[in-house]
Structure formats: structure tokens, C-alpha cells
Amino acid sequence: MKRSAASTLPLVLLLLAVVKASAAATGGKAGAAEAEHAANYLVYVDPHPTGVDCQSYQLGILAAALASEAKAKAAILYNYRNVMSGFSARLTPPELEAVKKQPQVNRVLPSATLSLMSSKFDGVS
User: Fold this and answer.
1) Whether the predicted pLDDT of 95 surpasses 90
2) Which of 3, 65, 81, 112 has its CA 20 to 30 A from that of 125?
């Protein structure tokens, strides 16, 4: 069965549209998959210099690691300055590695929420 060029063209265009849509969907899923692997971390840093705002100092460290102040503002969850110097942030694995390379960063730990298994402790309710 011979097909004319006029009847083949719509099939080719349809095939190209499906391939393009599939590639776009895969690209979107790759970005979403990376975001799904993001986790919360506690980042311990050197104390901020005298006269420098603590939050600005810590945001600057994260912005340098992520190469964007906007990304840093979106990632940072909380700033710590009284008991420790640091912040918590939601980071993907590549972002985590970039943060660890910053000279002001002393330690990075996964954030964890702990809860009591019982309300009774040594007879206290």
C-alpha cells in the first residue's frame, strides 16, 4: 500500500508532537524528582562578625553556596543565633555538597524531629 506525501505528513507531525511533549514531561519530572530528594539540614557556621546582622551573614553563606540569593531565601527555614550559630535549610543533595564547601560552615547534620514514646518517665505523668 503506497501512501502519498500528503497523508504521511500529518502522521509525522503527530509523532513529533508526542516526542516533544514526552521530552517536556520528562524534564519537568527530573526537576520535581530532585526537589523530592530535598531534606532539612542544620548548618552550623562560624559566629557572625561584630556589627554584622546575623540573618544577613547566614543568608550570605547560603546564597554563596546556591549561587542565588533568591534560592537561599526560599531554602532557609530558620536562623539560630543564641545557643548556636547556624541555620536550618531545605537542600537537595547537590546543594548540600555546595554548602559543605563553604569556609564558614563547620558542620551539617540532617534535621530530625524527636517525640516521646511515653508520657511516663520515672513515675512522672
Assistant:
1) yes
2) 112
